[in-house]
Sequence to fold (174 residues):
Amino acid sequence: LVAGTVAGLIVGMVVLPSLLPSQSTYRAAVVVEIERFTADRVVPGMDQGGWTRDELVYSTLDLDLSGQVVRRLGNRAARLRAARDSSRAAWPARLLAHLEARAVPSSDRQVEISYVDVSPELASAVVDSYARRFVVARGRVDRARTATAVRLLRRQAEDLRTGLAEWAQRVDEE
Fold:
């Protein structure tokens, strides 16, 4: 009985630590709500159809944004779990691979973006910075699409004015 207890203690002290993670990890997450683009709601034909939940989730993952986050973190980026054992040039892609995006179960417009790291501060800084940059980038795309829609509507309005003037002239001639 004593020999079994001692053997169990030795196995527990030698084998188990190598099987268990040596450091705690922290998961930081943020939920972003992704609305349809303004032009898609206003201009018939601009809407490219509703996105599936998978497409919505996929639309949140962007290599350029992860690169911006790495640059924003500066020297702290070297401490990221995602940056371990890789060159500085690979950090944006590695960070993107370690970001997790998933649809929020109760919503068809919300996506949770999360990152796990040994540092709670870095995990939080990554998801906060990424989410802010995503919102800014999406806003830029929305403004560009809206500007395109406004140009299209102005062109259509001008065509209608021209057509109306032509019809008015025909009526006057008759």
